[in-house]
Write a structure and sequence with these properties.
Length: 387
């Protein structure tokens, strides 16, 4: 049979699409499970055999080098959305990250100091030194040649789609749109967002806000209605003895029978501090804003007021900060709500022994504040327990 136009393997149109989809999904799976959750953060430990399967496939299908990828990603977390972040849309602009994310990654990976500082603990065996790192683009050359032999001229289209997928989707979309659009379950200095709650196409990386809130977690889904396809694969590999989970994001457990603040309460609040902060926004900020809007009359309180109060100050633009200052100057109740939230957050910087006394004092003042939602929130804090 002639190798052209079909190559050694002749498929229907949907067959070529399926093969391309599977090669891309395997690449994304290697990125999220091996490079990201295993190598970068250590919340997941893959079996050495599975690690090498992913290491080979990423070198073969994308030219990814473990140490470079891990170093750039760890640097991103260390400087998230601030100067020094190698691919933040806040620093470089959304358009550039979306369409030139691969160039930004390569520029960072060429910095030997960055790679040396953030790339520690990655593979440094004979294969890594003599093959993968030494001949990074040899893998892609073999990938291209294999496609041409197997699929002929149709392989050219398959190659083009495959090679465009990682820089655009894994690089541009996650690093770009994942810091610009979507929803935020947790507030932090980074602008990371969850692009969609059902993270099925990019290995679970779409749940980017959750990941920045809990970087070490092997599971990116935090809310009950979120789906992390990567976690489903982890469960399969764990059942086969090919993966071990070291750390998962906490999910708060409420023991409604608890009424007293004690050392266990402090430990639970420390563990679930991101959830506590989110609950404060929902159970204090939003009700106070609704009550204030009802009392002041329609249109008196800007519709954006709740979001301005809930958002982390570091992610607010200058105009938003100005509006927030005006709100806090105009409404004392909003200023007090923000002050109580800030003082609650400061407790997390204390050691548990001192934090207990300060938490009790915080709750006493909150219950005497005259703000109903704040009083109810303080009364509910003892219910937090570690699962």
């Amino acid at each position: 049979m002639s190798l052209l136009p079909y190559g050694l393997v002749e498929l229907p149109a949907w067959g070529y699409c399926l093969v391309t989809f599977l090669t891309i999904q395997t690449m994304f799976l290697g990125v999220t499970l091996y490079l990201h959750r295993d190598q970068s953060h250590g919340g997941l430990i893959l079996h050495p055999a599975l690690r090498h399967v992913f290491r080979f496939w990423l070198w073969f299908s994308s030219g990814a080098i473990t140490r470079d990828w891990v170093a750039v990603h760890r640097c991103h977390h260390a400087h998230a959305d601030r100067p020094g972040d190698p691919h933040s849309p806040v620093v470089f602009g959304l358009r550039r990250v979306l369409f030139e994310g691969a160039e930004l990654y390569r520029a960072a990976a060429r910095d030997p100091q960055l790679v040396s500082k953030y790339g520690r603990g990655t593979p440094d065996d004979w294969l890594e030194r003599r093959l993968y790192s030494a001949h990074a683009y040899a893998g892609i050359a073999l990938f291209v040649l294999t496609h041409l032999i197997l699929f002929g001229v149709y392989g050219i289209i398959m190659i083009a789609v495959h090679l465009a997928a990682q820089p655009f989707f894994a690089g541009g979309v996650i690093n770009g749109l994942g810091h610009a659009v979507g929803y935020r379950s947790f507030e932090m200095p980074s602008r990371a967002t969850n692009i969609v709650p059902w993270a099925l196409l990019l290995g679970g990386e779409e749940l980017h806000n959750n990941h920045h809130a809990f970087p070490r977690s092997a599971r990116f889904a935090v809310q009950p209605w979120e789906i992390d396809i990567g976690w489903l694969w982890i469960r399969l590999f764990r059942a086969l003895g090919l993966a071990r989970v070291r750390w998962l994001a906490p999910r708060p457990h409420l023991a409604l029978c608890r009424r007293e603040l004690d050392a266990e309460t402090v430990r639970a609040l420390f563990t679930n501090r991101m959830h506590v902060l989110r609950d404060y926004g929902r159970r204090v900020v939003l009700p106070v804003c609704r009550e204030l809007a009802r009392r002041e009359g329609q249109g008196a309180l800007p519709a954006s007021a709740p979001q301005l109060l809930i958002r982390h100050p570091a992610v607010l633009a200058e105009e938003a900060r100005r509006k927030l200052r005006e709100l806090l100057e105009k409404y004392e109740v909003l200023r007090r709500v923000v002050e109580y939230r800030d003082s609650l957050q400061q407790l997390w910087n204390e050691n548990p022994a001192r934090a207990l006394a300060q938490l009790r004092e915080w709750c006493r003042r909150a219950e005497e504040s005259g703000i109903g939602a704040l009083r109810e929130f303080a009364q509910g804090l003892p219910a937090y327990a570690r699962s």
